[in-house]
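Good day; I would like, with your permission, to put a structural problem before you. The record follows directly beneath this note:
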Amino acid sequence: MRVLHALPRLASLAACRGAAPGAAARIDEITATPGIDVLFVGSSDLAFSLGLRGDMGHPRVEEAMARVLAAAREHGKFAGRPAASADDIRRAIDQGFLFLQAPTELDLMAAGARGLLGAMGLFGATGLFGATGLLGAIGLFGAMVR
């Protein structure tokens, strides 16, 4: 896997985020704007704006993402996108996206907690932290008395 290191020539970084269908039609114009270093596309926002809510893998979304990537390469810019899992990150880098929105530290801590608690049988539908477990029942009771 390739790793992008900080570029010492950049004292600042300007990123342009776009997800509107109209932006895809004007991608060359947007990409040619002086001072923009990164073109970032929110795949979920893009899918929503194309009327494909939640379908980030739809061919129309993938096609628009590919156009952004091609325009970024043509103009010497970095292309960016969200990448939530290890597989997403590998796929995005393999495609050529080098500016990635990865999970937050809270997402990473929650994933670690789920793994630990799940291995102990304390997470899931019937575990201590699940919907029918002790804390799930306390949470339900708390919601009922509010």
